[in-house]
Amino acid sequence: MSNWDPTLSLQAWRELLVDAGWAVPSWSRQCFGRDLPAWADQVVADEIRLIGAVGQPLGSGMSLAAPTIVEHGSDELRHLILRPTLTGEKTWCQLFSEPGAGSDLAGLSTSAVLDGDEWVINGQKVWNTSAHHADYGMLVARTSWDVPKHHGVSYFILPMHQPGIEVRGIKQMNRHASFNEVFLTDARIPANHLVGTLNDGWRVARATLAHERTFSTMRRPKFVESAGKQSRAVSEAEAEAEEHFKTYVWYPQRAGRVDLVIERAQQHGVAHDLVIRQEIAALISFQRTSEWTALRARAARALGRPPGPEGSLGKLAASQVARMAHRVHTLISGANGMLTTGDHPHDATIAEVLVSTPAQSIAGGTDEIQKSIIGEKILGLARESDPSLDLPYREVARRSQ
Ligand SMILES: Cc1cc2nc3c(=O)[nH]c(=O)nc-3n(C[C@H](O)[C@H](O)[C@H](O)COP(=O)(O)OP(=O)(O)OC[C@H]3O[C@@H](n4cnc5c(N)ncnc54)[C@H](O)[C@@H]3O)c2cc1C
């Protein structure tokens, strides 16, 4: 940490971190790490913060794309893509869902066809968070129509800034616009941007989804003042975080704002109402116990265990907390909770909670899909029946038209 120099630019500082292997020390040396145990990542991140320096960039590049590339990418791809992701130079979005393929993601129909040394992509994606400013997309596309659906999908890194890509924002019912439709018309991907092997993209996509369900909560980084010096890297990191959180500003409301319920009950004069007290106690107890489950999962990660089906338990618990919080806020605020002007409670935050919590049980796989995963992978129940599983996808697509 003697290399920390507050006058460096954010980019220059992160390049030093990456070159020294301290950005993600548990990764291998080929992946810009130091081959240290998984627990070292948090220890090093804490030390970096304590000296007032800046660590990893925020966003799905670090949380989803980079670990997927570390696990499944070729050495060439790791070398090419990890470095600008680790420095924050390149940002990412996830291009998985389609109008006809959400829960049944393997039923996707965006196609990728090899043309010389490039893949040509045609189709439509939807609900793609941050696609309006991302540099790269994690794309799953169909590369074979003659095999069952899970066996004909490949995983690519799509450069987003090119003529064949049109990104259209979607206005949500909470008035934010954090996700998009993405139209792909003869978009191009260099042949070496395939992650994993051809037609084995389902396995790679599952790795990304497992990282998405790792109980991680998105927190705004707190920067420590750097020994009285004006720090260029810190102010650039603050600006980076500011920009990043514009997209995610409603996510605390999506999670239910449990932190507000006691204050709201006191303000509204219902803190002594017996029914409301019971509901608040049930909500806070459930949230605390689900936090312990999250801590157990984090401890497993720190021991180097890969994310597994237990992520689905955390996702389900988060949905349940959001639903319970929605109910408690409604009990406390009554019909006023719906107001966004005039006599609105808590600067209309409660109204935003009420229209944002449904998203918690959809994003990253719906509650029903998590229950199926838990049933099959944890409880060992029989696999859900799907008559299309053994058919060549070309026949399935024709039948559903
Ligand atoms: C806030 C937010 C951010 C998102 N960000 C992204 C992103 O960045 N990139 C991306 O690609 N996608 C993103 N998504 C999309 C998300 O992954 C999908 O919405 C989700 O997978 C569900 O798919 P769907 O909307 O097509 O619903 P459907 O799959 O059509 O489901 C509709 C209903 O049917 C139920 N259902 C479906 N199949 C079954 C089954 N087999 N058994 C029981 N019930 C079933 C579902 O549970 C649901 O209730 C985001 C969504 C949200 C809400």
TrEMBL record:
What cofactor does this chain's UniProt record say it requires? FAD
Species this protein is from: freshwater metagenome
Protein name as catalogued: Unannotated protein
Signal sequence span is none
Q: Name one Pfam family in it.
A: Acyl-CoA_dh_M
Q: Which InterPro entries match?
A: Acyl-CoA_Oxase/DH_mid-dom, Acyl-CoA_Oxase/DH_mid-dom_sf, AcylCo_DH-like_C, AcylCo_DH/oxidase_C, AcylCoA_DH/ox_N_sf, AcylCoA_DH/oxidase_NM_dom_sf, Mycobact_Acyl-CoA_DH
Regarding protein family, the annotation reads: Belongs to the acyl-CoA dehydrogenase family.
| Domain called Acyl-CoA dehydrogenase/oxidase C-terminal: residue spans | 269-378
> SUPFAM superfamilies attached here?
Acyl-CoA dehydrogenase C-terminal domain-like, Acyl-CoA dehydrogenase NM domain-like
The UniProt entry's GO CC annotations, sorted and at most eight, read: plasma membrane
Q: Provide a Gene Ontology MF annotation, just one.
A: oxidoreductase activity, acting on the CH-CH group of donors
Q: Does the keyword DNA damage apply?
A: no
Q: Where is the Acyl-CoA oxidase/dehydrogenase middle domain?
A: 93-185
Tell me the keywords, alphabetical order: FAD, Flavoprotein, Oxidoreductase
